[in-house]
Structure formats: structure tokens, C-alpha cells
Fold this protein.
Amino acid sequence: MQKLDPAFIAAEEFVWMQPDGSSKPLHARVGTPYLAGDGGWVCPAELEGLDGRYPDVAGETSMQALSLAIGLVSVRLGHLIEKGEHLAYPETPASRLDAKNLSVAFGSLGATSAP
């Protein structure tokens, strides 16, 4: 399921440094969660420059759908870093992001489960 022309509410831009020295922009975006026909919630997400638009991410609640959509984008970027690819912010292309920087950018650093 995909909502046509979603309202994106959060975005982050990165530069993907290519092995040949060129660079490619990556645009991570998540949209406003909305009710699906089955009573659950779904949230648009995309990673333009890598995978493009994903099927809208489903969850039981709007918060869960939003969280899962953000997590999907974060995991896909993490896959690039795990493969040895280099990501940076456009403002500081010489400064490479590592897994910890990515966790900070997506709010997952220090996340723990409740006791």
C-alpha cells in the first residue's frame, strides 16, 4: 500500500561517497502516519538515491508505524556503512558517518527496553 503524494514530515540529507570519488545525494524522508482500511496505521517512507519509496510501513498505532518507518530508513543506511560504504552530511562531506553517528541521527542511541 502506498499513499499517493504523502506529506513528508521529517527529512535528513546525506552524501553517499562513491568508490570512484564521485558523490551521490541521499534523501531520507518519513511521512505523516494515516489510518489504513483495516483499522491499523501506515506511514510513508523513502530513501531517494538508494531504494526510492518503500511500501507504506504498517503498525498497530500511529506511533508504531512512524517509529518503524524511521527504523527502516535507519537500517538501510546502516547496511551501507556495514558494507564499508561512506556516508556524510552535505555540510561536512569529508567527515564520515559511522554506526554511532547514524544512531544519534535517528534517535536510537541509548535506547533500552523497559525493565
